[in-house]
Amino acid sequence: MEFFLTPWILFITLIVAFLPYFLVFAFKLQSSGDKTLPPGSMGWPIMGETIEFLFGNPENFVFKRMKKYSPHIFKTKILGEKTAVICGPKGHKFLFSNEQKLFTVFRPHSMQKLFRSYQAKAPAPSEPEAKILRSPSFLKPEALVRYLEKMDSITQQQMQSYWEGKDTVKVSPLAKTLTLSLACRFFLGTDDPERIAKLVRNFDDITVGMHSITVNFPGTIFHRAKKAAAAIRKELIAVIKEKRAAISISGSPLQDILSHMIVASDTSGKHMTEAEISDKMMGLLTAGYSTIATAITFFMKYVGERPDIYKKILDEQMGVASAKKDGELLQWEDIQKMKYSWNVVYEVMRLTPPLQGTFREAIADFTYAGYTIPKGWKIYWTVSTTNKNPEYFPNPERFDPSRYEDENEIPPFTFVPFGGGPRMCPGKEYARLAILTFIHNVMKRFKWELEFPKERVIGDMMPIPENGLPVRLATL
Length: 476
What we know:
It is a single chain. This protein has 476 residues and is an alpha+beta fold. The chain contains 17 helices and twelve strands.
């Protein structure tokens, strides 16, 4: 039996441990009296409202407080930090337009401890990192074009190995295996299936532990995440050693981000240790793994519930396939023809965001909606303040890809699945290619039915079907 049986056991334990301090903090909280702060509650001393945020669904947490306090901004205390939640399209615009002016990235304590080289605030990139970020070789459309054929080839191999010939498959674990295989090939330059298989379970533990209470006892979420991070770091350091040796001996071609980072580090005069490089790569792999797998999983769920939408996607994808020669891999122009399929993915991400939100830190006092947020406070940004608002999305619980046929009908800053401004997700185009390549390959092969149409969705910051989304396959 795990130690971490329920969040409330942890909560009671913390109350007992910190009881001498509770009344002092409560008194300070009541006597602060700063009326310029936004409305809201700091919750319990020490813990704040962390328990409800992490285990009561972040989306519900935000909606409840928007209704109770303000649809524009409210204050809270989560993950040990005084936090302002800025809501709605005006809030999105304000945040995106003030990056590095009023805000910088903040990483919760759990992430800082899992990724040991991470700092609370995102510093300016080191020279080796800056070279990678400036390089035209990665993450830009013109560069990803060259990777698209490999992405299609890997996806076909995965279909042949894990999907074809099966009556039933569990989508969620297979989506994770696929997206981690793609990420390992793209970022690390490796497609060793045994190595990738060892990494999958550990990455699951990390993604859950990135937003958790940092209680490091056996059986807790954070303890499992720490063990997983250590295992991944060990494996990545082995890959780095192999890659560095290959580069020094034969000058192997730089066809992946890891090789570029090693060379940039070794030639810049600002040498990064293998542990530092492994942490950077672990962060990239995490970003290129879990959110894409989530989008693929819920694509299968929502489309499996709607035969009418399945038919429209099938017509589009068969149109793409019919224009290609036998054995010809996907090209850039093929992806551009998949407009309806991508609208479906947009609607998937609106209803079930692959990532609930991220944090910023105020680098100066600022005023928003008539309230003052002090320097050092944290800002929680989340897509959920607009995604299901009927003002912007009529009948918001209905799955309706036609919403995106005319982009001008969607008010600005109401649908921002990849963020915006200088911090817009740099992997947006990579994610689009990976998801559409999967859709093309699954649609060419199968029809499917959900094994459990009412399957419960668990997970808070990272949603997942409780049983892994088993589906019954029928070959076309």
